[in-house]
Amino acid sequence: MKLRTLAAVCLLAFPVTSFADEPSETYKALVDEILEVTGALKIGEQMADLVIQQMTMAMKAGGTEIPDRALQFMREEAMATINQEMASGSFNEMMYPIYAKYLNENDLRAAIAFYSTKEGRKFAEAAPLMAMDGMTVGQKWGAMMGPRIARNVERRLREEGIEL
Question: Is the pTM here over 0.85, yes or no?
Answer without folding.
Answer: no
